[in-house]
Amino acid sequence: MSADGQPRNPLKILLVEDNPDARTTLRMLLTIGYGYTVYEAADGGSGTQSALDLRPDVALIDIGLPDIDGHDVARRIRAVLDRDAILLVALTGYGTAEDRRRTREAGFDVHLVKPVEAADLVKILDEHVRRS
Predict the structure, then answer these.
(1) How far, in Å, CA of 39 to CA of 12, rounded?
(2) Which of 3, 64, 80, 82 is the most exposed place for a label (fewest CB within 10 A)?
(3) pLDDT tens digits along 16-28
(4) d(C-alpha 119, C-alpha 5), whole Å
(5) Residue 59: exposed, middle, or buried by beta-carbon count in 10 A (0-12, 13-18, 19+)?
């Protein structure tokens, strides 16, 4: 629900995160707390394929994945889906200017440093809904 008690836009969100605890926590926050539909992938390869198959509104992608990193996931998604088709959000433990430059060049729209504040993430999702 939104702050005014109205149902949120039912965004389809893909969460690509290799840490099962982090993935579960974020999924529960987004589904139970805010009513979004969340799909999950535990590695870059399955995350890329899920993004291309499911065509979610948003993909939250960890940068440090075990097979291909999040930068490559973003590049592969952007090769098929443009910025109007999907919002790509980088989730990473690193927040230097160089880290932000790399995520931007890979095709991410947003760079969030872990641990991600729920209010910051929901604000980004709400802004995306308003722009869509």
Answers:
(1) 8
(2) 3
(3) 999 999 999 999 9
(4) 16
(5) buried
CA distance 105 to 126: 24
Alpha helices by DSSP H, 7-117: 20-28, 44-54, 70-78, 97-106
Fold designation for 12-131: Rossmann fold (3.40.50)
The model's pLDDT over 26-53, given as tens digits with 9 standing for 90+, comes to 999 999 999 999 999 999 999 999 999 9
> Other C-beta atoms within 10 Å of 41: how many?
24
Split at pLDDT 50, 70, 90, the class of 1 is very low
Q: Strand pairing partners for 88?
A: 59
**DSSP characters for 6-27?**
PPPP--EEEEE-S-HHHHHHHH
